[in-house]
Amino acid sequence: EIVARLEAFFAPKWFSGHAVLVTAGPTYEPLDPVRVLTNLSSGKMGYALAQAFAQAGAAVTLVSGPVSLPTPLGVTRVDVTTAEQMRAAVLERVPGHRIFASVAAVADYRPARVSPQKIKKGAERLTLELVRNPDILAEVAALPEPPWCIGFAAESENLDEYAERKRREKGLQLVVGNLVQEAMGRDENTVVLYDENGRIPLPTADKVQVAWGIVRHVAQRLGLIDTAVERGDL
Amino acid sequence: EIVARLEAFFAPKWFSGHAVLVTAGPTYEPLDPVRVLTNLSSGKMGYALAQAFAQAGAAVTLVSGPVSLPTPLGVTRVDVTTAEQMRAAVLERVPGHRIFASVAAVADYRPARVSPQKIKKGAERLTLELVRNPDILAEVAALPEPPWCIGFAAESENLDEYAERKRREKGLQLVVGNLVQEAMGRDENTVVLYDENGRIPLPTADKVQVAWGIVRHVAQRLGLIDTAVERGDL
Q: Exposure check for chain A: N or C terminus, fewer CB within 10 A?
């Protein structure tokens, strides 16, 4: 924690006076009290991004699915379990935030019925009916006064095509794309940034450094870096 | 770690010369490279039991699903992801083990088809076909020369009935039952032991103490406690 405090002290305060809302981790979509459908996510990338924004001076709120990670220093954390809980927590808090970074691996579908008691196993085969979950990022980006929206695209193939399509269809300012094979559960990540100016690959690095690369890019895009130099914050 | 070494040094060595195989954690049953069906399990109870058996002198092998816990001191750990991988790891290693403790929350069902690429979301509703996973504990208990088998029953209701039925139907020497509401993700647990002599509730305690309660009960049932006294190990 002493190291974290020192890092935060010496970090450039590009985002002083700005509020940033970040989602991280998976969501758990219950079938019954013990079984869930989920997307694999350690939460590391979202937590690293929340920490980097906080160290860069932002007031950061982190809406987090179930993960086993400590809350980054200076970050306000709100714990949720399901996609619907995450949606409610985000929509309640997003007004007043300059930036929304949707890093959570929200489950796209949830079981249509949730059993209040543990389902006893029996049949050899079982059919599970799933319904679509809300698309939290698309909803936020479509608000009358949306924040600057950052989406994450974790794909197993066709990364450029899917990431660009996600950016255009949801009207996002930035998409951070990666191949799941190169990121999941690992401390390192290889990402490509997609924005209106094109495609910017970042070097492979640990998730903390990747987070700083993203924060720097956002600060440049929002014109906060020159301002900070003028204020003497660098 | 110094504390763990001291605890291990002073623990009674009831299980010296005995091999114990423990499973712990959840299994992940993939739909595609990012989505899984799983049972909620922190792995804490299984890890605590593996540690207690090791401290009590046993040679412990721990077959573990994906959890974020350190390997207990002196325990040999084998990592697996799916129920089928866990079955293979257990059946390969179980010969020569005196005791098999099945603590893992193995997913009862897995998706019938696994997509090699991430499934793109589309339809409002989706039907998922599931097939039964192997019952690892039942298979081990039905071996020609089975180890002494300990099962765990995590139920949301009717605990006595379900736990007793599990013990009789699978032919287990011991079932450790708990209510999921009182155990899941927590450090404490309230369990009841079910064996041929009936029902023995253990006091609510942290999972490490509960593990020691189970290990003591097993040592008594196997007649190892008096033997140990005679050997001067106490």
A: N
Per-residue pLDDT reduced to its tens digit, A166-204: 999 999 999 999 988 776 667 788 999 999 999 999 999
Phi-psi region of B74 (alpha: psi -120 to 50; beta: other; left: phi over 0): left
**Which chain B positions have a beta carbon within 8 Å of A39's beta carbon?**
34-36
**pLDDT tens digits, one per residue of B205-226:** 999 999 999 999 999 999 998 6
| C-alpha distances in Å from residue B88, one per residue of B27, B39, B83 | 13, 19, 9
- Tens-place pLDDT, residues B145-200: 999 999 999 888 889 999 999 999 999 999 999 988 776 667 788 999 999 999 99
Residue B195 β-bridge partners: B198
Looking at the partner chain, which of A38, A131, A155 has a beta carbon nearest the beta carbon of B125?
A: A131
In this complex, do B34 and A117 lie within 8 Å of one another by their Cβ atoms? no
In whole angstroms, give the CA distance from residue B6 to residue B28: 35
Beta strands, E only, chain A: 19-24, 28-30, 35-39, 59-64, 76-79, 99-102, 109-111, 125-132, 148-155, 174-179, 188-189, 191-195, 198-201, 205-206
